[in-house]
Amino acid sequence: MAIQTVSTTPFSDQKPGTSGLRKQVTVFQQPHYLENFVQSIFDSLDGYQGQTLVVGGDGRFYNRQAIQIILKMAAANGFGKALVGQAGIFSTPAVSCVIRKYGAFGGIVLSASHNPGGPDGDFGIKYNTENGGPAPEKVTDAIFDRSKVIDQYQILDVEDVNLDRIGPTSLGNMTVEVLDAVNDYAALMETLFDFEQIRQLLTSGKFTMCMDSLHAVTGPYAKAIFEGLLGAAQGTVQNGEPLEDFGGGHPDPNLVYAHDLVKVMFAANAPSFGAASDGDGDRNMILGNNFFVTPSDSLAVLAANATLVPGYRSGITGVARSMPTSQAVDRVAEKLGIDCYETPTGWKFFGNLLDADKATLCGEESFGTGSNHVREKDGLWAVLFWLNILAVKGESVETIVKDHWATYGRNYYSRHDFEGVDSAVANDLMAGVRSQLPSLQGQPLGSYTVAYADDFSYTDPIDNSVSKNQGIRIGFTDGSRIVFRLSGTGTQGATLRLYVESYEPDATKHDIDTQEALAPLIQLADQVAKIKELTGFEQPTVIT
Ligand code: VG1
Ligand code: CO
Which residue has the CA at smallest separation from atom 18 of ligand 1? Predict the structure, then answer.
């Protein structure tokens, strides 16, 4: 066995963001770039000799090459076994499922999620720990610190592994076991949901569904589960062939990028139910016939109806949402008498709460929902959860959401993204807002009164770790809020995110257009942050 020790020099830009290290493919293709990061991961870990590593990705361009490099490095560094999805494919929630099921030491997920792929697109890598979840900040900080001083890495000088043939092969002293990418995940879903009842719904002839996999990783999973196990009509899954460049699209399930699905679901004879997932399968968008469910409302509806679903029949212990996510779920928690946690953006902050059983359901406004069944957000899980609720209730998506609003009040909510802003301008803008915070406290602003104005800081209730500067929030006395954050997943320039929320208890006022309902707050946000003036953007790039 030929272990090579290769000399290298550090790259200064290997700081993981909201969800791992994301860069343009061309950056990852630089000699030693991926290798440095992978060795930095291994160097930051203890006790993995002879242990199992799970490796898989969303199938985007460079996935296969990266996996070969990672396997040869894992073998050279002393891992005993690697579990890899067939063809190098695993959705992000499937990696989490496999790490937990087989008691692996950890896993490496290759994805840039919702970012475009292809030779000119993006690539990404992140490390997940033994609980199946994204590494917490203390681990990603250690990886970054190591990457700044790394001077060598270990790699095996051997032939590539056949990733298409299921079963074991030897790679030096390590065994590579190629697994069916779908089986373990699908089996887990069967333990959580009433597949028989969902099958009856999908084959009743009265209910139609359209699932858009956006040419990304969920295609094979969705076909196996919906069209296979649950008997939905062939063709229920559209854009179901994973492509290395996602067909040139932006694999982000929202009303802008999932345009094929939006066309189907907002047509005259639309199906009863529509859903989409992102590049790596951890996000979901839920649609009814001519009806869009905001992700924040989706989380609240799932929490309110959880006991209708077998996996959650005995109730949920608590819920958690990222800070910018609307407070709709808070109202459900209050009624259920359970705790609601507010965390920084990014799934890694839910891990401790889930491990400690303080939260059962978690969600983010960015089309992410999940539960304690794995430690990642999970797109198809959310779709199945909705299907199970629809099957039990026998009502439309729209009726369920509107009844929910009538019971709990409606949290009008929207996110405005300004993509490709000059980084210096974005930092100045944020600094400008930050400097106003002390003087805003208690002051009138437009027709509102500021209740609090701060830079969100989070203390993890389990390990007491503190995460500062997680978004600037200005809250008003009537419960409405505006929040400003810079994205931590982009690869070029900066993306400014503006999150706007208001609360309307009166059911006669629940049919207002969202942007109209939020217009006064949107205007105030521009006044405070001078978005148009500083960025030169007349409109946001994406509104969700
Ligand atoms: C975005 C979302 C965040 C999500 C993250 C990863 O981060 O806002 O809620 O956790 O993407 O999602 P940011 O820093 O760009 O706002 V995914 O589907 O990339 O794993
Ligand atoms: Co994703």
Answer: 113
In the structure encoding, which two tokens stand for residue 37, read together?
């990061």
Distance 112 CA to ligand 2 centre (A): 7
- HEC letters along 323-341: CCCCCHHHHHHHHHCCEEE
Q: How many helices (H) and strands (E) does the chain have?
A: 17, 27
**Mean of pLDDT values over 431-456:** 94
Strands (E), 202-344: 209-212, 237-238, 273-277, 284-288, 291-293, 318-322, 339-343
**Cα 303 to the center of its chain, rounded Å:** 18
Task: Name, in order, each residue with C-beta under 8 angstroms of 209's C-beta and a sequence gap of 6 or more.
Answer: 202, 226, 232, 236, 271, 272, 273, 274, 275, 387
Beta-bridge mates of residue 152? 7
pLDDT recorded at residue 1: 65
Ligand 1 centroid, distance to 345 Cα (angstroms): 7
**Residue 191 neighbours by CB under 8 Å, 6+ apart:** 311
Contact 110, 123 (CB under 8 A): yes
Question: Would you say 25 and 120 are in contact if contact means Cβ atoms under 8 Å apart?
Answer: yes
Q: Are 165 and 88 in contact (CB under 8 A)?
A: no
- Give exposure, 115-127, as e/b (b: 16+ Cβ within 10 Å): bbbbeebbbbbbb
Ordered structural domains, the chain, with CATH: 3-181 (3.40.120.10), 185-408 (3.40.120.10), 410-543 (3.30.310.50)
Residue 274, strand partner residues: 210, 287
Residues annotated as catalytic are: 113
Taking the CA of residue 92 as reference, the ligand 1 atom at the shortest distance is 20
Per-residue burial over 300-317, b = 16 or more CB atoms within 10 Å of its CB, e = otherwise: bbbbbbbebbebbeeebb
Tokens of 312: 């959650």
222-242 pLDDT tens trace: 999 999 999 999 999 999 999
The yes-or-no verdict on residue 491 having pLDDT over 90 is no
Residue nearest to ligand 1 atom 19, measured at CA = 113
Q: Per-residue pLDDT for 25 more than 90?
A: yes
Which residue, 306, 292, 282, is CA-closest to 364? 282
- Find the ligand nearest to 18 CA: 1
Q: What is the pLDDT of residues 143-198, one digit of tens each?
A: 999 999 999 999 999 999 999 999 999 999 999 999 999 999 999 999 999 999 99
The CA 45 to ligand 1 mean position distance, Å, reads 25
At 92 the pLDDT is 98
